[in-house]
Amino acid sequence: MSSTHVKISEIIADMHVIDTHEHTYPQELIASRNPSIVDIFEGSYIFWIAKPPAKRDDFKSLVESVKGISESTFYKACSIAIKDIYGVNVDPPSEEAFIEASNLIRDAYKSRNWTRRVLRESALIDKVLWDPYWDIWRESFDPELFKPVFRINSLLFGYRRDVVDHNGNSPYVFEEYLNLKVEKFDDYMSLIDRVLEEARRRGYVALKSALAYDRPILFEEVEEDEARRVFNKRGLGLTSRDIRLFQDFILHHILSKASELGLPVQFHTGLALIEGSNPMNLVNVIRKYSNVKFILFHGGYPWIREVAAIALSFGNVYIDFCWLPIISPSACKLLLKEVVELGLSSRAMWGGDCWVVEATYGALKLFKGLLTEELCKMVDRGYLKFDEALEIASRILSENASQIFNI
Ligand SMILES: [Zn+2]
Fold first, then answer.
1. Looking at the domain 124-404, which fold is it?
2. How far is the CA of 242 from the centre of ligand 1 (A)?
3. Ligand 1 centroid vs 20 CA: distance in angstroms?
4. Looking at the chain, which residues constitute the CATH 3.20.20.140 domain(s)?
5. Per-residue pLDDT tens over the stretch 237-269
6. Which of 45, 52, 173, 213 is deepest in the core (most CB within 10 A)?
7. Mean pLDDT in residue range 180-196
8. Listed residue (290, 292, 269) closest to 279, CA to CA
9. Are strands 17-22 and 317-320 parallel, antiparallel or unpaired?
């Protein structure tokens, strides 16, 4: 390793971070489960690609299961974190290591402020944009560290009282929270406005769409009368076209409200319902709501070039690397390089997108490593100056997010 590389790597490792996207479970929730390594794996996507054990303490079958995916970055990032935080090597997976790590995890979650300590002291994360989708109107949290974002999905499901979004959320819970009663279509539209105004007032720093898990993310222009007609069916004889028209209209309405309230909008793009998640689907709304800041998540993976090209074409588009480094470091490096070449480093940021702080720690360590690697290569071949490389790193790790979300 060259001395430039050593220096850049040390400086980036010490940089403080604003993490633009997490689902961090409250510590008391994890502590109440008598946690083990199973909870850490659950919070780090391991069980997206490996089968969870039928019994939580069956570490023998857990080893068998994760052995099949231990080459994945989800597993590598998670094991880096367990090694650094608990001093246990779980790569390659073994029953003894899982038992040892589990004992330490259980103890750690008994100590107060464990999650805060890992985020602040081990990962150097100063602030976290937080998407608690299991409780989108959560009242109790650590407001100094966590800045909530408001998940908009449920608002598109108001066409019937008995439907919910993919997380099980209904917009009609807001009738009670905000002391409103929805009878007519106009009442429903007022409910949306009130929810968004109230979110702003309560300190939510952005809106967040995970709609790519519910439906394709192409939202066409629909007349208000069409949406009203669908609402007035009261759920009777609804067609899938009716639902799409209603939802398209609502999404446009939310974006015009975001524009009025100055709320940036984070959009999940890529993967999810993959036939409809290509970020190119958002171009019409990006063009129309030109004063809304659109933050495209996950580098749009696998459509990383589309995301870069959309950001180059529209000044109101930002690229969020969240989740991408632990999906594919190769794709992440390619996008990092192109972001620099396209002059987009003032519009890029990073988030972990995990449920447990150990996973966040691993995702960040990995991302800082990739950032270091790509920037060093550019310094070595004389493309970037040393200081320029560090400025880019600092923008991506904290400055851009601080400006965009005003935190
Ligand atoms: Zn997420």
1. TIM Barrel (3.20.20)
2. 28
3. 10
4. 124-404
5. 999 999 999 999 999 999 999 999 999 999 999
6. 45
7. 97
8. 269
9. unpaired
